[in-house]
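TRAP transporter large permease protein
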Amino acid sequence: MTPIEIGLISVIAIVFLIYAGVYIPIALGTVSFISIWLMRDNFTLALNLLKVAVGDSAMEYSFATIPLFTFMGLIVSKAGLGRDIYEVMTMRFRKVKGGIGMATVGANAVFAAVTGSSIASASVFTKVSVPQMIAQDYNPRFAVGVVAGSSVLGMIIPPSAMLIIYSFVAEQSVGDMFLAGVIPGMMLAVAYVGAIWFMGRFTPGFVGGRPAEDYELMSGREIASKTLPTLGLITVVLGGIYTGWLTAVEAGATGALVALVIALVRRSMSLKGFWEALLETGHITAAILFLITAASIYSRMLGLAGLPNQLQDMLAGNQSSFFMIMVIYVVMMLFLGTLLDTASIILIVVPLFLPLVEAMDLSLIWFGIITVVGAEIGLLTPPLGISCFVIKSTLNDDRISLKDVFMGALPFAFVMLIVLIILIRFPSLSLAILN
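Predicted structure tokens:
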């Protein structure tokens, strides 16, 4: 077999193994290692490339952003900042049709800016938002759909684990990726709020609910005590990166320290909770390092096989336009999103298309935003839909089935698709802060 045939078979084998339940880095690393060995008939070369991949990943300075931002997010979650922001948002939207849903989106957007995890958002707001919406007679499908839809904001609003993973795969600045995610993340949050208003106005039966007339108002001091810690943390992290005072790594370290101080001042975290946060940070960091290492050897395998260049020549030979290439790319991500998680999609698809994007003189920062938003739609689509599974398992309510969660999330997946099309059509939206 030719190297290209081996490369194609390898990509198919990786997707099959991941879908069959094999751990993603194991599937990527093992198949890529064997493919290099077969293509060059040189076991030593394959072993050396694996060693280089491990060394490059572990010794990369910007890799320090992963444990720092992960630790910050875990401390923030344990400090109860998500619940505080939700209570303030709920009070502000209490008399609007679908107001609690809008409050959930707003709180998720703010919470995402200090955690960067859609799974954490789904878990937290399933506990605090869904029971309250059901108590206010909201449609259960709408209630879980809002939480599922808004939870994906954690993967696009910085600091985002997926933006970090993409920055390693595409060799882009983590700080630039964070800044590029701000406007698309806000656009998605605003689009969600607009969609909820639209559904409340034209499909009130799907939304349900009643205004919370008896909701207790908060004093200015109480609102400040619940919002200022989170807003201060966001200002330190993103403000430091935007002004250039802090690199992404320094912002992560500063944010982790500030989050720890907030948790100590609020007395919301025990020594046991601190130790648990440290352990979980280690587990997550090790898992992501394993992912990045596997992605590195996979990229080298694709380069040896010549698949990216072959794809580029094929599309150039067909005189494919920018529009057609984007359609192919988005459709591929949407299809894989029904089978794989976001990290898998980024690691498999991005190395294939990067040379093509570079050849077209397109921004790799913009391409990263398109990739993450497109792949995130998969969090809301069956059969995998990780956010939907997290909500179902966290809710533990037999009255709400997994089908209800997926059906409730469907309108928000459609909104994400519209926002994705806008971002593709107007690349300047993703790059505005950087220019």
